[in-house]
Amino acid sequence: MQKVSIIVPIYNAENYLSNCLESLVNQTYKNIEIILINDGSIDSSLSICQQFSNVDKRITLLSIDNSGVSTARNLGIKQATGDYITFVDSDDWIELNTIEFTIEKAVETNADIIVWSYFKNYANQERALSLIPGGNQTFTAKKEILYLKSIYQFYGQKKFGDTVSAGTTWCKLYKSNLIKENNIKFKKELTRSQDVIFCLEAFSKANLIKYYDEHLYHYRINNSSTCSGTRYIEDTLTPFNSLLNEMEKFSKQFTEKEKFDDVINARAVQIILWHLDHKYFHKDYKANIFKRKREIIKFINLEPYKSALRNVDLNLLPKKERTVTKLFRKNLIVTFYIIYRMHQSYMRLNNKKFD
């Protein structure tokens, strides 16, 4: 019977952690180890972990000084003794048959990676979403859609809707030896989308990947989520440029360079919005709108953002990204700021996050 290691990095997740851990300890497939890495939490997360580990011997609890999610996940990989590895975020949860379903498919097909779909959970609604368009699929030598949709979440979508990158950490079951023998690790220097680079490397090393359009993972949107844009980052250039550099470096090994250039330009436009969310439009950025405008104009004239704004295919962009591209090409920063604030208010009303 194959053993599955479930790795859970934890930082200040007291509001949701019990829900997450209940979904893990009650899995219908029992041959699991649950590796909890408390990443220097200052709330009651460690106490909650201890309560669960005291009653379930399948739980291994590690506690480290706050070092970031990449360090925590890498430690989990090092600790893992299972034949397979999967990742769950501490504010999310999974269906009770998730491990049973995915390990059955892994053993049946001998796939290196099993991928599945998810629910996106807001406080006021739940959406069932596919991680990869096109239903159940098998990937062997040709994995282009996996690479391109990992770099740019809207690639291959018929409509620009609610979706995430195919390069999420979660919704994947990996053969342990694929990860360990190829020394695939999360890069600590990346603030966001560490999972994308990890997945790109894993996908490229895998001989067989199977995707099942089964909704098994619950991705919770809350005010502490990285994607919520609530965290202020003083230096956004270093981590976000590092991410684009890693994607560019990865794309150079493939012949269809034009497609990769298109998605990297589109991703760069998205990352311009990250810079706005995490710095220039953030409430903790101490500057009036005119100083913000000057600083943003200076920033968007740096590479790779200058070239991305000039060369991006507008047809690849959803409405928000098309709008920022058109306005920033004309340096209409204040106009976009007003639209941005209106959009933020609309999203708060219609997609309520968990507190």
Report what the structure shows.
With 355 residues, the chain is of the alpha/beta class. It has 2 domains: 4-226, Spore Coat Polysaccharide Biosynthesis Protein SpsA, Chain A (Alpha-Beta Complex); 229-350, no CATH class. Helices cover 44% and strands 17% of the residues. The chain has 13 helices and 10 strands. The protein has helices at residues 17-25, 45-55, 69-79, 98-109, 144-151, 176-181, 194-205, 237-251, 257-280, 289-300, 305-311, 319-329, 333-350, and strands at 4-10, 32-39, 59-64, 84-87, 93-94, 113-121, 126-129, 137-139, 172-175, 209-220. Strands 1, 2, 3, 4, 5, 6, 7, 8, 9 and 10 form a 10-stranded mixed sheet that branches. Strand 6 and strand 7 (126-129) form a beta hairpin. Helix 7 (194-205) packs parallel to helix 8 (237-251) and helix 8 (237-251) runs antiparallel to helix 9 (257-280). The chain starts with a strand and ends in a 5-residue tail after the last helix.
